[in-house]
From TrEMBL:
Mg(2+) binds at residues 13, 15, 209. One of its GO terms (molecular function) is phosphatase activity. It comes from the Bacteria. GO terms for cellular component: cytoplasm. Pfam families: Hydrolase_6 (PF13344), Hydrolase_like (PF13242). The active site is at 13 (nucleophile), 15 (proton donor). Gene3D superfamilies: HAD superfamily/HAD-like. Divalent metal ions. Mg(2+) is the most effective. PANTHER family: 4-NITROPHENYLPHOSPHATASE-RELATED, HALOACID DEHALOGENASE-LIKE HYDROLASE DOMAIN-CONTAINING PROTEIN 2. This is NagD protein. It comes from Syntrophus gentianae. Its cofactor is Mg(2+). Belongs to the HAD-like hydrolase superfamily. The keyword Cell membrane does not apply.
């Protein structure tokens, strides 16, 4: 526990780590208070591209936890940062919601449905045949295809919805072009988060509940990883993977064990 507590930067997944459904997980509030009291640098990561930082802040507030909006980092923000570094002042045709379009605007990427540099796809409540057909035409005309994350499913309080990986698949199949995905397990998202924290990877730790996205992303980024068993992974699942996390705990509240 002391090794974990000495870390300066904490990068955390959200669902399965801080909350599940409409409830905070045991120990989550105490963990958040500890981060603040100890002056830790921290970010909450999510592959969901629909929500803005402010919307994520509001969600945690409704659950009973107050966290500043700047402590959230989404796949939309990582995508926008990547595109701005690749094509400063570039343009994009976007299939996505406010979290994605706002992030792109703030990064200097303009919206363009005629001859964009990129076609960018994220989770969207306004997904349609017309938008997909237009995206296919633009990709065939030379636009580069970008996905905010490779997740095929999007768990919500109303059930399972198609994730970005499923929504972008028709465009990939119709064009023969493979999308480049920015979200976890792409290690670039972790590296972007470290830059936001201004923290070295040696002084940071990544906390997640999924071996297939969280832990492998941390390993690929050469950052210490902590698997919590409060989400989708159980102890019995660990033998299925050829890699393992540095630490395994029941939940984030266990980090405080022995803390002053």
């Amino acid at each position: 526990m002391r090794e974990i507590q000495r870390k300066i930067g904490f990068i955390c997944d959200m669902d399965g780590v801080i909350y599940h459904g409409e409830s905070l997980l045991p120990g989550a509030c105490e963990f958040l208070s500890w981060l603040e009291q100890e002056g830790k640098q921290y970010l909450f990561l999510t592959n969901n591209s629909q929500r803005t930082r402010e919307e994520l802040q509001y969600r945690l507030r409704k659950l009973g936890a107050e966290v500043d909006a700047m402590h959230f980092y989404t796949a939309s923000l990582a995508t926008a940062s990547f595109l701005a570094s690749q094509e400063p002042g570039g343009s994009a045709y976007v299939i996505g919601d406010a979290g994605l379009t706002n992030a792109l605007y703030q990064a200097g990427i303009s919206m363009n449905d005629i001859d964009p540099d990129y076609v960018v796809v994220g989770e969207s409540s306004s997904y349609s045949f017309e938008k997909v057909s237009h995206a296919i035409k633009l990709v065939l005309a030379g636009a580069k295809l970008i996905g905010t994350n490779p997740d095929f499913v999007l768990p919500t309080n109303r059930g399972i919805f198609p994730g970005c990986g499923a929504l972008i698949a028709p465009i990939e199949r119709a064009t023969g072009r493979q999308a480049y995905f920015m979200g976890k397990p792409n290690p670039l998202m972790i590296r972007h988060a470290l830059r936001c924290l201004e923290c070295s990877r040696e002084d940071a730790i990544f906390i997640g509940d999924s071996m297939e996205t969280d832990i492998v992303a941390g390993i690929n980024s050469e950052i210490d990883t902590l698997l919590v068993l409060s989400g989708v992974t159980s102890v019995g699942d660990l033998v299925r993977y050829p890699y393992k996390p540095r630490y395994v705990l029941n939940g984030v509240g266990d980090i405080l064990s022995g803390a002053p």
